[in-house]
Amino acid sequence: MDMISALTAFSALSQKTRLEAFRLLVTAGDAGMSAGDIAEALDVRQNTLSANLAVLLQAGLVRNQREGRVIRYFADTDGMRGMLGFLLQDCCGGRPELCQPLIEDLTCGC
Amino acid sequence: MDMISALTAFSALSQKTRLEAFRLLVTAGDAGMSAGDIAEALDVRQNTLSANLAVLLQAGLVRNQREGRVIRYFADTDGMRGMLGFLLQDCCGGRPELCQPLIEDLTCGC
DNA sequence: TCCATAATTCATGACATATGGAAATAAAGA
DNA sequence: TCTTTATTTCCATATGTCATGAATTATGGA
Fold it and tell me: What are phi and psi of A2, to 5 degrees?
C-alpha cells in the first residue's frame, strides 16, 4: 500500500454513510449484502448509496458481484489489511516499543 | 471511540500533508517534532501546517506541548488505538475467522 | 415484446475544505 | 524596551465533496 492508496482508503472511510456501510459489510462477512439491503439498513437512497459504494470500491475496501438482478457487496479484507498495515508499518519500523502494546490491544480477545 | 470520533480521525488522515505529518510523528516517537521541523521536513508553509496540525489535534491523533518558543508535537497512540479498535472491533464481533489472519498480518514481526 | 425491479450514471446546487498572504500572539535575548 | 524567531489566527479565494432528481442500463418474468 502506497501513500495515494492509503489516502484514498482513509478518505473513503471519512464519511458517515460509507463508514457505516463498510462496517455493515465487515460484520456481514462472506454473506455480503445487496446494494438495496444496505440502502434500506442505512436509510439512504439508492443513488446516494451507489455513489458511496463506488468510492469504497475504488478505494479497494469492498468488492462486488452481480447475482441476477441484485449486486452483492463484500468487505475486502485485503484492502483493509493494506490500509492498517500502512500505518502500523511505520510504527513498528521506528519504535517497536510503541507498536507492541498497540497490537496487543487490537487483538480484542479473538 | 464512537462513530463521530472515528469519522473525525479518518477525515484527518485523508489529506496528504496530515497523513505525512502523522507518520512522521509516529516514527519520531517520544522525541516528537517541533512544528517548524515538521514544516521543513514536509516542505509546506508554517500556516498551512499549523492548520493541518490543528485538525490532527482535534481528531485526538496528536498532542502538543510548548517548550519555550517552539511547540512540540507528538503522535497520540491512544487516539490511534481507538480509531483502529473501532474498525477491528466489528470485525471480531461478528466473524472471528476474518479477524484472526488480519491481526496476525499486522503484527509485522515486532 | 413489454413491464417492473435493481442499481448506476449524469448534471446541478449547496456546503465544506485547503491554501496563501497578512496580521497577531508568544517567548527569548540584546 | 526593542528585535528576532516560532507559531498561530484571520480572511479571501479556489477547489473538492455530497445529496438530490432525472435519465439510463441491466435483468427477470408475464
Answer: -100, 180
| CATH number for position B53 | 1.10.10.10
The nearest alpha carbon in chain A to B90 belongs to A27
CB-CB contact of B59 with B50 (8 Å): no
Q: For residue B76, give the C-alpha cell.
A: 497520540
Looking at per-residue confidence, does A92 or A26 come out higher?
A26
Q: How confident is the model at residue A110 (pLDDT cuts 50, 70, 90)?
A: very low
Phi, psi of B43 (to 5 degrees): 60, 50
Give B91's contacts in chain A (Cβ within 8 Å): 26-27, 80
Please report where in the chains the cell 462472506 appears, as a residue: A30
Report the alpha-carbon distance of residue A108 to residue B91 in Å, rounded.
Answer: 10
Q: Which of residues 26-55 of A touch strand C (CB under 7 A)?
A: 34-37, 39, 46-47, 49-51, 53-54
Contacts of A87 in chain B (CB under 8 A): 23, 26, 80, 84
Count of domains in chain B? 1
pLDDT in tens, B83-101: 888 887 766 555 566 566 6
**Chain centroid to CA A65:** 16
Sorted by sequence, the CB contacts under 8 Å of residue A13 that are 6+ apart come out as: A19, A22, A59, A61, B10, B14
Domain of residue A12: give its range. 3-106
